Amino acid sequence: MRIVQLSLVVCVLSFCSIAVSQELDSKPAQSVSSKTNEVHKKAQHRGPECMPVDRFFAQEVWAKVGETTCLKCHRKGGDAEDSKFLLRNVAEQGGGQAEALYRNQAAFLQMAKAEEKAISRLLAKASGGLDHGGGQVLKKNATGLQILTTYVKRLASSTTSKPLLQMDDGPFYAGLKMVSHQRLLRRVTLSLTGRLPSPAEKTVVAKDGLAGIDRVLDGVMKEDAFYERLQEAFNDIFLVRGYDDNAESVFSYDHFNKTRGWPQNYDYGDLPEKEERQAKYAMYDLYRESVLREPLELIEFIVRQERPFTEIVTANYIMVSPHTARGYGIFEELKDKFNDSDDSLEFIQTKLPALKSRNGKVQETKEGFYPHSGLLSTFHYVRRYPTTDTNRNRLRARMYYQHFLGIDIMAMAPRVTDAAAVDAKYEIPTMQAADCVVCHKTIDPVAGLFRDYDKGGYFATRDWYEDMFGPGLDDEDLPEDERWRSMQWLGERTAKDPRFPTAMVEHVYYVLTGRKVMRAPQGIDDPLFASRRRGYLAQRSLIKEVVDQFVKHDYNLKVAFKAMIKSEFYRADGLATALLDPKRSAELDDIGVVHLLTPEQLERKIFAVFGQKWGRLKKDYTKIDILYGGIDSKQITERISSPSGAMGAIQRMMANDVACKHVALDFTAPKEKRILFPGIEPTVVPGSEEADESIRRAIVHLHEHILGLEHTVDHPEVERTFQLFAGIVEDANSRKDLSKQESYHCRGEGNDRTADPLYTYRAWRGVVTYLLRQQDFLYE
Question: Fewer CB near the terminus (10 Å): N or C of the chain?
């Protein structure tokens, strides 16, 4: 984050504050907003030193009341956007945070100085007086009201605090350790492609640092493994693989009844009955996986081709494979366009013809094609979020806001304490009761845009409800002649909405860190509130910077990935922050990349390090992946971020199994093919200076290869690991009843049982097990 500093001195603050106050008071006939804008323009004309912000206003009034309470309604797009008291979201301004804070101070100043019956309008409104549309937002003894009361008293007595010399108390990243460029390279290749960096990539980064990382990423984001990871991550977000029933149920009986079950009638040749049945089951498996991948293949295509990511909501095409094309009944028209018409995972662009019902009715369109609009119009997406007669597409609308505009509608909703009383008072509460309207006037119009999709997500034209706000978005109604393309109408407006790129960059943040972005802290009585808010503002500034780059480069999602990876937020050594004082720790709570690897990521990392997967965390393997925090995209939709007891047991199993399998296997391989022990033999035991040095060098290699840690032979962790190895060997030598052979299950290549007379195979197995249990391996 680039912290914006205001170079102010006390005399300048006093001069400019007086000027602002006088100018605001000089034109009583003008609206608050127009006077504020005029004063702001004059302040800008005088120079940035004449946009001062009082420290008490910034740290108390705005941070604890304005941002947490007033901004919910008194903002563009909020319930009070038509009022004269309009505020700016400082957190979303990036480099313009100081200017936004100054504008907000001017608005608060005007509201505080205006009086009604000898009471400040600011205090009267906040406490529910003067017909405040938001009612009583601050209770009598609330901390927020006390802050506003103090603020009004300070203004009356002309009390000023020290000027806000800068937006915080120092450079946000001061003293924070960043990972080395080589560790960053390893983090990136493991995270995005599930492999270790190549020697050539290491050389590029060693020579050119972050600029080298940039070039490496250009290659990484062309690999198929990157797109496998991309699909997996975006399914975590959209959950489109998680709709109920078999995958082919996404095709409606009304429109695809003759084609949806094509594997049942496929020509399998002259196979015996049992073999034909097995072939049919196998074909259905391929078909179903192909269907489930369709919407994610759209995301892959857009990113792979570096098309504007706005196409996720505007693409006038879908991606089909030979198998899904058969399901849609368009295979014959497309078969020559496939490289391999039997490859269930080859996808190409196409458009569906206007849907035709079994009764012969053809969908109304102006072009003869189904009106595609990216993910919004896929049957998968609307089927994944079904509706009911009472929900009336509100779930779909809620997910639209969450997925594409980054807005959690449920967080906006006030909790009605007596729903029965509201029902009794209003004929249509969702259109009349203030506590209901606050959400429903936002969510119901979008619900109306989905009206032609029934409970199962199938297209079915129907009339809409009169006791709901009409179809539209924000304050714009859907024209009746656009109804046939309502999703396209929505997608076009979504792509132009400034909230869209922010939501997409937040998705990139999730893909890279495994965490959702922070939400503004609300507990103003929390002693660490200021620290938490500073961390939040730093993250919002980062998001804004990446958004600017994303938009500048025509919504190329690869640019967002690269900008985020090079940021201090991603490069910070998250493990080091645990040693800081509580206030600093609260500021840095969400910085760096310290998250538990998903089952899929852990399997890929084991493969990258050892050349073979463990294999027990793959989906449908006795559901161990679910126990280890995986998701099924249906009932289990959130990944576990903190390990449970069961997950700890799985980690122990993994460490024991992988070490058992690979230590003897590596030692019995030709020396030039060894990846774990290229520089030592199992005959080397502790005791001599030369042997101890050789063992420590082998340990350094294991730390670097398995954990990515660049230690020297005298590093404390190397010594700790050496003592473990030496202790195991010493303990074995003190016993006479131990076998001279490795366990049968841990045997090496081509051996029934590996000879281990010195107990070094098993000692090294203990070392590898120990390293696999480390946070540096299990976490990213």
Answer: C
